[in-house]
């Protein structure tokens, strides 16, 4: 498996409020490994967004590692991974929510979260917000995750088209995020990784590069690194009005 991730401040913003992680993680005292990729796009004031996204990732990683180790030590079914993902997201939510309520300068901060875990030849995915995961297979590319946003609600109701959603003035209004409320409900997906690639990204990419262009770029690139860097360049060339983060995992 080949993977590469990168974040970029973009062409307009003064700071980068995105965070990401992508790597294999070896469970302590075992020979078992799992792969984790996660993207968080923070929001909330001058510093709140970057704090929210980095705190969410660190908490999520820590709690996930504890849970994955329990799968091995207690010989639990591999599908227990979904429950562990859910718990890790809830812990990340609590960490961000509590931090925001302890500091008036951070009040209201939050973050999106999209994550994939590859374990025992299965991909487990969780998402909150409008950061996305795309699946690129031989027969085409599809968006697996569903945006938790105001404009996506309008699309679902048939009130606007996907194309209109791309330029809607309220496209950045998030209906569900990590840390903005005491409780959070993530979406979950399970898919087999055979002969597929996976792209996780913040809306700084998906809002500025069309899905057709994303698919074409990934297929034509000779490596995950080349694809990600090209996608970020394309987002910046289209205006770069937001932070841009992408992780590509190629099987």
Could you please describe the fold and organization of this structure?
It contains seven helices and eleven strands. The chain has 251 residues and is α+β, with helices and mostly antiparallel strands. It has a single domain (2-144, 175-250), classed as PPM-type phosphatase domain (Phosphatase 2c, domain 1, 4-Layer Sandwich), CATH 3.60.40.10. The strands form two sheets. Strands 2, 3, 4, 5, 6 and 9 form a six-stranded antiparallel β-sheet that branches. It starts with a strand and ends with a strand.
Put the structure in a nutshell:
This protein has 251 residues and is of the alpha+beta class.
Give the topology.
Layout: E1 2-8, E2 18-26, E3 33-43, H1 45-73, H2 80-102, E4 110-111, E5 113-119, E6 122-128, E7 132-137, E8 140-143, H3 150-156, H4 162-166, E9 187-191, E10 197-201, H5 203-206, H6 211-220, H7 224-237, E11 244-250
Antiparallel strand pairs: 1-11, 2-3, 3-4, 3-5, 5-6, 6-9, 7-8, 7-10, 10-11
Radius of gyration: 17 Å
Helix tally equals 7
Low-confidence stretches: none
Category from helices, strands and their pairing: alpha+beta
Here the CATH topology equals Phosphatase 2c, domain 1
Task: Name the CATH class.
Answer: Alpha Beta
Biggest sheet descriptor: 6 strands, antiparallel
Write the H/E string, N to C. Answer: EEEHHEEEEEHHEEHHHE
The 3D shape can be described as: globular
Report how far the terminal alpha carbons are from each other: 5 Å
**Gross CATH architecture:** 4-Layer Sandwich
Kindly report the oligomeric state of this protein.
single chain
Beta-strand percentage?
25-35%
Number of structural domains: 1
Specify the CATH homologous superfamily: PPM-type phosphatase domain
Mean pLDDT: 94
Give the fraction of residues assigned to helices: 25-40%
Tell me the total number of β-strands: 11
